[in-house]
Design a protein that fits this description.
Layout: H1 20-30, H2 35-52, H3 56-73, H4 75-87, H5 93-110
Helix pairs in contact: 1-3, 2-3, 3-4, 4-5
Length: about 110
């Protein structure tokens, strides 16, 4: 499913800074139906941070939402992600394996790795 595209991706919004407010503002544009989910996971991350006396849950929350927003804001990644997710349990093992490879590639690209 991976393909080299000569056109640069058309992004719905610029890549947001990795702060809760910037991520929320971007999500409100690219996937407003996920705002409640974002708030719930944010509350859980902050509660864990207090309980664990560590910022690691908050850092993980920021990275996860930055990744999801990167996928949602880029039609090329979004299409590849949707294809991969829908084919992970394909009856043809070769298709399922390719879907897993593509999902990994999309997540790596979204994380900038």
């Amino acid at each position: 499913m991976s393909s080299a595209n000569s056109e640069p991706p058309r992004e719905a919004v610029p890549r947001p800074q990795q702060t809760p407010d910037a991520l929320r503002a971007a999500l409100a544009v690219v996937a407003p139906d996920r705002l409640a989910e974002m708030q719930q996971t944010k509350d859980e991350a902050f509660a864990k941070a207090v309980e664990w006396q560590s910022l690691n849950p908050v850092r993980s929350w920021v990275l996860a939402w930055a990744r999801d927003i990167e996928i949602a804001r880029r039609p090329d990644l979004s299409a590849r992600y949707a294809w991969a997710k829908s084919n992970l349990e394909h009856k043809d093992p070769a298709v399922a394996q390719e879907a897993l490879r593509e999902l990994t590639a999309v997540l790596d690209e979204a994380m900038g790795t």
